[in-house]
Amino acid sequence: MSSWQLPESFRSASGTVRWNRLGPADGRPVVLLHGTPFSSYVWRAVARSLARAYRVFVWDMPGYGRSEKFAGQDVSLAAQGRVLTELLDHWGLTDPLVVAHDFGGAVALRAHLLHGVPYRALALVDPVALAPWGSPFFRLVRDHAEVFEQLPPALHGALVREYVGSSGGPGLHPAVLDELVGPWLGESGQPAFYRQIAQADQRHTDEIQDRYPRIGVPTLICWGEDDAWIPVAKGRELAGLVPGARWEPIGGAGHLVQEDAPAELTAALLGFLREAA
Predict the structure, then answer these.
(1) Which of 28, 50, 136, 157 has the most crowded Cβ, counting Cβ within 10 A?
(2) Distance from C-alpha of 212 to C-alpha of 110, rounded to nearest angstrom
């Protein structure tokens, strides 16, 4: 059994969210957001390191990881932005430090720019933020999700494993790959995998893209230089749109910087968070 546990639960508008809190009760709060098709598991090393000094909140988005999955579930970026807003209220956090990866970046940006959620600072790691996004494979599955959902379980498992392992960088340890693929298998996991892709709509970033110059909180943008899913050029473009954003490319890392270069990423985050806090 994985040592990464989410013992707490919260009933959100999009289903039950599993979450956990690490670190000192009086520490400055840091909220970590994962992306797709991942879960909070990808933050485990960074979260435990940050928890030496900060009160760290981790959670699996509805439809992901250990959180609830069900037919008809709204797992869109719009829904996840609302869930984050609910969660921060549930946790009693008024101006947390927020660190977000991939789709989690879009979720954090929507909550801040559309729902008025205040942050003390925002760190974005290879976020989904600028159009166009989505690999050719991602777009193919999105446009034919109902067909892919009918794959035999063994073929589905092989597809997900290959997809998760294609993010660039030095490659994932087989045990890590097992942990990331596991939630997408079985009776509830297989349809959930295609559900979240089917609901991935670029309009949810189009709605906020012209607002990035209005971001007024300290912002760090980290990017794996070998990201095979979102080119590093997108990171430089985003850094140029956010006033005063700090740009931190990370060599030798792919899209999953947390797995490929956890020490380098943690060091960048710690330096930024210390200044922002």
Answers:
(1) 50
(2) 10
pLDDT in tens, 74-128: 999 999 999 999 999 999 999 999 999 999 999 999 999 999 999 999 999 999 9
Quick one: angle between helices 153-164 and 186-198, nearest 10? 50
Residue type, 193: F
Query: For residue 177, what is the enclosing H or E element?
Result: helix 174-181
- Cα Rg of the chain (Å, integer): 17
Q: Which residues contact 58 (CB under 8 A, 6 or more apart)?
A: 6, 19, 20, 21, 22, 32, 40, 43, 47
Q: Exposure of 251 by Cβ count < 10 A (0-12 exposed, 13-18 middle, 19+ buried)?
A: exposed
Residue type, 215: I
Looking at the DSSP bridge assignments, the partners of residue 223 are: 249
CA-to-CA separations, 89 to 30, 190, 225, in angstroms, rounded: 14, 31, 35
Three-state DSSP class for residue 1? coil
| The model scores a pTM over 0.85 | yes
Amino acid residing at 247: W
Question: Do 63 and 12 form a contact (C-beta atoms < 8 A)?
Answer: no
